[in-house]
Structure formats: structure tokens, C-alpha cells
Write a sequence for this structure.
């Protein structure tokens, strides 16, 4: 990043989140909700379908964390513990140091959500229900006992996921009403007015990179949904 | 499971040899609970094995039939493994709900249906026809699920 980019005065709204990141986010919200509903209602065919789609989204997001635009990259938003501590102190003193992209705490919250979602999906793939009737596509490779264990991990992880989502939403509300910063609209429109002093960086998604990511994600999700039988 | 596997297996073997009924009354409540758990695990394992065959598209008739017979052999024993004093109030580690002992008729009815469906399943397995096996698998699994929703604590 050249110094001239970083010192340009904020001129209205600038791109913050690229399209794939936003589609990922809102598709994930909808599908996590749907997976919850279908799981509770034992609508297993649709629960599995929703899970495979989430798996595809997660694989894509992993790819995008390396090849996506600036604000979507892990290297940009996974910051040192020192940076997180400094930011947290400011936050609780109600001093908001604007970030362009994920702030140092938000970045780790994203990582925690992604790891938890991967665990959730991973456990589901091996899970077997108590009737031995419904199961994930990879359960054929493990014993009934291991499959039951996976089902228990699947369930326990969901509690963790709900807690993280609650924290996530609470944090957004804290920004909205205490720090007077709207994080929701940018996640929809992709654009934001940069906060004063924030270092603006160009956000550009490469269509070819996105295409490659989508193909990889779809291939992985499809192969796993078939239980790796071709 | 807290019980050592070997004890459970020995109990299962004893109960099989003694024809189930006779030995049950001789079991302690803990042994009874362990035995019914071991039996349910056997049925679960068999269901999963059959499910795996069905998923492959071309089920192996021998594997399906052998597992169907495991379920049909275990199913008739289960109703007797819920004597008074083996419910949650006994302090034993069990997911059995108190309703089993207050609504025994429904519980016994489901056990009877389990035996019927398990025997039908052996017949279906004997045909080797994937569609017939799949259809009867759903009917049998449906009884497992119905009873678990009514009489087993949700985990
Ligand atoms: C099922 C529920 C939800 C899940 C699983 C979830 C998950 C996530 C994930 C993984 C990210 C990171 C996105 C990325 O960088 O690719 C994120 C960011 C974000 N989410 Fe959610 N989310 C949920 C609900 C919500 C809701 C209900 C809102 C709005 C009220 C919301 C608003 C946001 C915002 C504004 C960001 C960007 C945060 C930042 O600036 O650091 N999310 N969410």
C-alpha cells in the first residue's frame, strides 16, 4: 500500500466489502437459521442439503481469505494480541478508533465463527442419530459409537455457535447505539464512509479469483455430499 | 458407557443362552440398564450398517440379512428390560423417561410394533430388493424414532 492511498481525504462512500463477502455473509445467516429449523424438526434431507451449501460457503470463504479483496483477507484482519488489547481498552472507554475493514477484535470474532461453523459442519458429516436411520455422508467410514459421538459434538458446538452469534449481534448493537457507528448497512451495500483517521485501502475483488473459488467450493461440497463415492 | 465392555458382552451372552426372560429377573438394576443399552447399541449398529449398504446403491444381500436378523433377535428382549426400579429415579445412568412406567400400555405397544416391523424387515432383506429393503427400513426406523421421542430423554 503506498502512502498516497492511505492519506487521501475521505470523499463520501468508498467500497468496503466486496460482493462475494457480502453474499457469503447473508447466505450464511439464512442457511444457519434454516439448518437450525430443519435440524430441530428432523427434516433431515433438507438439513443435509443446507449443510452442504454451508460447507461450500465455508470452503469459499477460506479461499477468499487468501485470494479475496483486501478487507476479506485473513492477513489483513487477524491482528496481534497487542493490537487487540489496545483496541479493546479504547472500545470500553467508548473511544472508537475507526478501522477500515474488520477491527482488531472483530477479526478474531470472524475467525472464531468460521472455526465453529467448520466444526459444526465437520461433526455433522460424521453424525448418526440414535435410530441409526439418519446420518451424515461420511458416517460410513466410522463406527456407530463414533457417529453418536460426532452427533454429540454437533449438538454441543451449536450452543457455542449460538453464543458467538449473540456476541456478534451484541457487538454490532454496541457500535450502532453507543459508538454511533452503523456496521450493518455496509455489509448490505458494500460501501461505507470511512471513519476519520481510518486508513483507506482499495477493495477490489478479482472475478477470475471468485470464479476459481466458487468452482473449488462447489467441487468440495459435492464430493463430500456424495460421501466421497464416485 | 461406564460399564466395562466385557461385562456387558458377557451379560448379553448369558441372556442369549438363558433365553433372555429367565436371566432378567436375576440381574441387578445396574446390570439390567447395561444390558438394554448394549442391546440398543447392537440394533443401532445394525441399522447403520444396513443404511451404509443402501447408500452404496447396490446393497449386499448377505450383509443386510445378517444385520436384519440381529435386530429381529434383540427386539423381543427389550420390553422386559424395563422393570420397575430401573428408571431415572433409581439414580442409574439412563435416558429412559418416567412415562414408560406411567404409560406402560403405549410403551409395550411400541415394543410389539418393533418386533413386527423387525420380522417384516428380515423378510424384505431376504428378497434382496433395494426398494423393498429401503421401504421397510423407513417403517422400522419410524418405530425407533417414535418411541425415542415419547420415552427417551432428548440428548
Ligand atoms: C446466523 C447468524 C450470523 C452468522 C453465522 C454471522 C456470521 C458472520 C461472519 C462469519 C462474518 C464475517 C464475514 C466475512 O468477513 O466474511 C460476519 C460479519 C458481520 N456480520 Fe454477521 N453473522 C450472523 C448474523 C448477523 C446479523 C443478524 C447481523 C446484523 C444485525 C450481522 C452483521 C454483520 C456485520 C455488520 C459484519 C461485519 C463485522 C465487522 O465489521 O467486523 N451478522 N458475520
Amino acid at each position: 500500500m503506498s502512502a498516497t492511498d492511505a492519506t487521501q481525504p475521505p470523499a463520501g462512500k468508498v467500497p468496503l466489502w466486496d460482493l462475494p463477502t457480502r453474499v457469503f455473509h447473508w447466505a450464511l445467516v439464512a442457511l444457519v437459521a434454516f439448518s437450525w429449523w430443519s435440524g430441530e424438526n428432523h427434516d433431515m434431507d433438507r438439513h443435509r442439503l443446507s449443510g452442504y451449501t454451508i460447507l461450500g460457503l465455508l470452503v469459499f470463504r477460506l479461499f477468499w481469505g487468501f485470494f479475496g479483496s483486501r478487507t476479506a483477507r485473513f492477513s489483513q484482519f487477524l491482528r496481534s494480541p497487542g493490537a487487540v488489547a489496545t483496541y479493546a481498552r479504547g472500545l470500553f472507554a467508548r473511544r472508537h478508533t475507526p478501522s477500515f475493514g474488520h477491527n482488531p477484535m472483530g477479526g478474531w470474532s470472524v475467525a472464531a465463527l468460521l472455526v465453529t461453523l467448520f466444526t459444526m459442519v465437520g461433526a455433522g458429516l460424521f453424525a448418526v442419530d440414535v435410530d441409526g436411520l439418519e446420518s451424515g455422508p461420511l458416517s460410513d467410514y466410522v463406527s456407530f459409537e463414533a457417529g453418536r459421538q460426532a452427533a454429540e459434538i454437533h449438538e454441543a458446538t451449536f450452543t457455542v455457535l449460538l453464543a458467538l452469534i449473540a456476541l456478534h449481534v451484541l457487538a454490532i448493537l454496541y457500535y450502532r447505539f453507543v459508538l454511533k457507528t452503523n456496521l450493518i448497512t455496509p455489509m448490505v451495500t458494500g460501501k461505507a464512509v470511512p471513519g476519520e483517521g481510518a486508513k483507506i485501502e482499495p477493495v477490489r475483488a478479482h472475478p477470475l479469483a471468485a470464479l476459481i473459488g466458487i468452482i473449488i467450493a462447489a467441487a468440495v461440497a459435492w464430493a463430500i455430499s456424495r460421501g466421497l463415492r464416485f | 458407557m461406564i460399564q466395562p465392555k466385557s461385562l456387558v458382552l458377557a451379560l448379553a451372552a448369558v441372556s442369549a443362552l438363558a433365553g433372555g426372560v429367565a436371566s432378567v429377573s436375576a440381574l441387578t438394576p445396574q446390570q439390567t440398564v447395561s444390558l438394554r443399552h448394549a442391546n440398543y447399541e447392537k440394533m443401532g449398529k445394525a441399522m447403520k450398517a444396513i443404511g451404509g449398504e443402501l447408500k452404496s446403491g447396490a446393497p449386499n444381500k448377505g450383509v443386510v440379512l445378517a444385520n436384519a436378523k440381529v435386530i429381529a433377535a434383540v427386539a423381543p428382549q427389550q420390553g422386559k428390560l424395563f422393570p420397575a426400579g430401573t428408571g431415572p429415579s433409581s439414580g442409574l445412568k439412563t435416558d429412559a423417561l418416567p412415562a414408560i412406567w406411567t404409560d406402560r400400555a403405549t410403551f409395550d405397544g411400541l415394543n410389539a410394533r418393533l418386533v413386527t416391523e423387525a420380522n417384516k424387515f428380515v423378510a424384505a432383506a431376504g428378497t434382496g430388493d433395494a426398494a423393498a429393503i429401503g421401504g421397510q427400513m423407513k417403517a422400522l426406523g419410524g418405530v425407533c424414532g417414535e418411541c425415542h421421542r415419547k420415552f427417551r430423554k432428548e440428548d
Q: What stands out?
A: The pocket of protoporphyrin IX containing FE is lined by residues A 21, 24-25, 28-29, 32-33, 61, 72, 102, 106, 110, 113-114, 165, 168-169, 172, 183-184, 187 (CB under 6 Å).
